[in-house]
Amino acid sequence: MRFSKALRNLFLVLFSALMISACATAKKEAADPLKNDVYTGTETVEYLANGVPDRVFFATNKFSLTTAARDTLRKQATWLRKNKDITVTIEGHADERGTREYNLALGERRANAAKDYLMTYGVSGKRLSVISYGKERPVNPASSPLAWSQNRRSVTVKAN
Amino acid sequence: MKKIFFIFLFFIISFKNAYSLIKVDITRGNLDPLPIAISPLHVDSKSEKLSLFDTDKLGEEISEVIEQNLRSTGLFNPLKKDSFVQKPDIAHLKPRFEDWRLIKAQALITGKVLVKNKKLKVEFRLWDTIASKEMIALSFTTTPLNWRRVAHIISDKIYERLTGESGYFDTRIIYVAETGPKDRRIKKLGLMDQDGYNAKYLTLGNELVLTPRFNPTNQLVTYMSYFKNMPRVYLLDIETGIQEVVGSFPGMTFAPRFSPDGKKIIMSFAKDGNSDIYTMDLKTRVVEKITNHPSIDTSPSYSPDGKFICFNSDRSGVQQIYVMRSDGTQVKRITFGTGLYGTPVWSPRGDLIAFTKVRKGRFYIGVMRADGTGERLLTENFYQEAPSWSPNGRVLIFYRETKSGAKGEGFSAKLWSIDITGYNERQIKTETDASDPSWSSLLSK
Question: Measured between alpha carbons, how far is B72 from B246 in angstroms, rounded to an integer?
Fold first, then answer.
C-alpha cells in the first residue's frame, strides 16, 4: 500500500515535470525560431518575387546549405531562369562573433555556396556576382543568438 | 617574467643604496611602480611670446605629457607636484637630493624650455636621487608646434634609461574610426598619436574601410576598402594622400600587412569560396601565391626577420594558427588548445605571437611562443580581437566591443592596451568609437 502510494507520487512528480518541460520547449520554439543553430523564421526575409525568398541562413562558422536553404535557392533559380534579363549580386554575411578577417573569408564562402547551387540549377555564372561583407552589415544589430542566426546569411539582391 | 626580472635587476643596480625601498613581487609578475618626481620644466624668462599658444605654460604642459606617458606604463608612479619643495629652475641646475628623497622620489626629471627665433629648445635631465647622480642630460631644438613630440621623445629616453628597453611614446596609431548605428556603421581611417592626441581622418567615410597597417617607415598604410563596392587592398601614402589598389585581382583581397623590409604586401585573395595567401612586390608588381589549400587561409603576419609567416587557417575544420616558411613550405600547425584561434601577429622581437582566442563564447587576447608553446591569456571579454604590438614588444593594443541590446543600443567599440605581463589594461581615448588599431614603429629612431 505504502509502496504503491510512493510510486503514484513519483509518477505524479515525473508527469508534472514532463508537462513543465514540454511547456518550456513549446514556448522557446515560438520565440526562438532556431533549428540546429540555423535561423528558420521569416522575420528578416524579403522576397525577390511572390514566394521567392531572397536569403538563406547558415550555422555558426559553417557554409553548408541546409535543406531549407536549398529549397529557397531552387525557387530563386526557377525565378532567375524565367527572368533571363535579371542579374544578381549574392551578398555573404557573418555574425559578430568571429574575427573580422576570417569573417570576410567566411562571407565569401557562403555567397559562393549559394552561387554554386544556383549554377547547378541552370543559372549562368555570368548573371551571378558575389560580395562578402563579413560582419560589417548585420541585419539585426542585437547581440543575441537569434540576431546572430539572422545575420549568418547569404542574400540574393537584384543588380539591374 | 624574465623581462620583469631584468627591470627589477636594473633598479637594484641603479639604486644600489636602496634595496629596502624597492619591493617587487616577481612571482606575481607585479611591479611596484617606481616613485618619480617630474618637476615642471622651467620656462626661460627670455622666451618669446607666441600667438598659437601660451609659452609660459609650455614647461608645465610638456611635463604633464611626460607624466601621463610614464604613468600609462604602470611601471612608474609620478608623485604629486604640490609636495615638491625645490623650484623648477634651481632643481634643474642642482637638485637638493635629500629634499626629493624626503618625498620618496627615487628618480627626478627636471628641464628648461626656451623659445627663441621661433624655435623651441627643450633641455631635460634625469636624476637618480638615491645615488645623487645625473643619469641623462639631453636637449632638443625644433619648431614650437612639435612640443608634444618632444615630450614623447623625452619620455622614451627616460623609459629607455630606467628599464633598459626602447620606448614606444613617440609613435602613432592608425585605426578605423567608427560612427553611426551598428547596422549602418560609417568607418574612416583615423591617425593619432599613441596617447590619442592629434587625431585626424584620412578618408571621408563614403565607403567601408578596414584593417589599416603601417609600413616599417610609417609613411605608407595598407588597408582594405569597399570603394565602388569592390572590396580590395589599397596602399595609401599618408603624406601625399595618394592611394592605389594593390594588384589586379579578380575578386576580394583583404587582411593586408607589409613584409618587415616594406617591399611586399602580404594578403588574402578570395575566389570561388576559397581564400589563399598571396604576396605582391610593390616595386616589381610580381604576385606570388603562398598558400594553396581549399580551406580559408588569412591574417598572415611575417616574423621580423622575414623568414616565416604565421597565419590563420581552418584546414583542420576550425580556425587555428599555423606557421610556414615565407615561401609557403613547411606549414605547421602551432595551436592545439580548446577553442578557436585567430589574428596571429608576430612580435617585433620575434619571440612571441599574439592572437585572439574564442572559447565558450568568450574572447581572449593572448600570447604564446612562436612554436605555440607557453600560451598565456592576458584578457577575457565579451568581444575583443586584433592585437597589434608596441614597437618594443611589451604592450599590445586591440579593440573591444560591448554587447548590444535588441535595437543595437549600448554598442560601442573602443581601443584598449595591455602589457604582455597581463597587467596595466587601459582604454585609449578616441574621439569616436574605434577598431582595428595598428601601432607604428618609433618615429625617431
Answer: 37
Q: Where in B230-326 does DSSP place strands (E)?
A: 232-237, 243-245, 252-258, 264-271, 274-281, 287-289, 297-302, 308-313, 320-325
Of the candidates A108, A138, A140, the beta carbon closest to that of B273 is on A108
Question: Any idea what DSSP says for residue B216?
Answer: T
What are the sequence ranges of the domains in chain A?
1-31, 32-158
Residue range A32-158, CATH number = 3.30.1330.60
User: Strand pairing partners for B209?
Assistant: B225
Mutant choice from B209, B225, B257, B275 vs A, greatest count of A C-beta within 10 A: B275
User: Which of the residues in chain B have pLDDT under 50?
Assistant: 1-29
Confirm whether the ipTM is greater than 0.85.
Answer: yes
**CATH tag for B2-163 (out of 3.90.230.10, 3.40.50.10070, 3.30.700.20, 3.40.50.150):** 3.40.50.10070
**For the whole model, what pTM was predicted?**
0.89
* pLDDT tens-digit series, residues B205-214: 999 999 999 9
Edge-first strand order for the sheet with B209-214 is B209-214, B220-225, B232-237, B243-245
> Could you tell me the three cell numbers for A91?
551578398
Per CB-CB distance under 8 Å, the chain B contacts of A106 are 296
- Kindly report which listed range (A11-25, A30-44, B93-107, B309-323) carries the lowest average pLDDT score: A11-25
Measure the CA dihedral B47/B50/B56/B62, to 10°. Answer: -100
CB within 8 Å: A104 and B270? yes
Q: Report the distance separating Cα B292 and Cα B148, nearest Å.
A: 48
Q: Which residue of A has its CA nearest to B182?
A: A141
Chain A residues with CB inside 8 Å of B270's CB? 104-105, 108-109, 132
Nearest to A105 among B298, B318, B435 (CB): B298
| Chain B residues touching A117 at Cβ < 8 A | none
Which of A44, A90, A93, A104 would you mutate first to test chain B, the one with the most B CBs within 10 A?
Answer: A104
Q: What is the CATH code of the structural domain delimited by B172-439?
A: 2.120.10.30
Please indicate whether, in this complex, the C-beta atoms of B403 and A109 are within 8 angstroms of each other.
no
Q: In this complex, do A109 and B274 lie within 8 Å of one another by their Cβ atoms?
A: yes
